[in-house]
Design a protein that fits this description.
Layout lengths: L1 H37 L7 E11 L2 E10 L2 E11 L2 E10 L2 E20 L4 E19 L2 E13 L5 H6 L3 E3 L5 H17 L16
Antiparallel strand pairs: 1-2, 2-3, 3-4, 4-5, 5-6, 6-7, 7-8
Length: 208
């Protein structure tokens, strides 16, 4: 029994270590491609196609497809739902979704109270709270999630500094079926969502 337990523990530790190495490689590959996309003007291998949809005044968005060597590598999805803006990245290897990234931005209003001998006053400053979550997929399921977060005055927000922050492992809360559904919709939009003459942009959900 002790031998069985030891073997099982060794298997679990080895499996988790292998996953960590795999996620590190995936992170490096993803970030390298994002860098290439940012410099695509100098990289003739990167091709971008954009689509736009409009379902209602409360829901609309833009989809950007990035290809390398004619293979789809990245989908960037920016959409507005009600009054919230959302950003998603879908990283693809060999036509398989491997990494799903979301950015959540919340603007908070902090009230400050100051008092001097002559008067007391209230002032308000906007604070930007940003969270990035990365969900790693293997064999069509989510196997691990990482997250980083930072909150600063909106006027002092620094994207370059945010990109230097380390990730921490967190519990995965994304519904895999919901993620699969959205990914299938975006892949269908890649082929079918077009603008015809002066007609308005179509709705992404009509493709399903």
């Amino acid at each position: 029994m002790k031998l069985y337990s030891s073997v099982f523990l060794f298997f679990v530790l080895t499996f988790n270590y292998g996953q960590e190495i795999s996620q590190d490689k995936m992170n490096a590959s993803y970030e390298e491609f994002l860098k290439e996309v940012g410099e695509k003007e100098r990289d003739t291998l990167i091709k971008q196609v954009s689509k736009r949809y409009n379902c209602s005044e409360y829901f609309s968005g833009n989809i950007y497809y990035y290809y390398k060597n004619d293979q789809l590598k990245l989908i960037k999805h920016i959409y507005k739902q009600n009054w919230d803006n959302s950003l998603e990245y879908y990283y693809i290897e060999n036509d398989t979704l491997r990494l799903y990234t979301t950015f959540t931005e919340i603007i908070r209003a902090n009230t400050r109270y100051t008092k001097s001998e002559r008067e007391a006053s209230f002032s308000m400053e906007k604070v930007l709270d940003v969270t990035e979550n990365r969900s790693f997929l293997s064999q069509n399921r989510i196997v691990m999630c990482h997250e980083r977060q930072d909150m600063k005055k909106q006027s002092e927000w620094d994207q370059d500094f945010f990109n230097t922050l380390s990730f921490k492992k967190v519990d995965c809360t994304i519904d895999i079926e919901d993620l699969r559904y959205k990914y299938r919709i975006l892949r269908k939009a890649e082929k079918k969502l077009v603008k015809y003459g002066g007609k308005p942009y179509g709705c992404i959900f009509y493709l399903w």
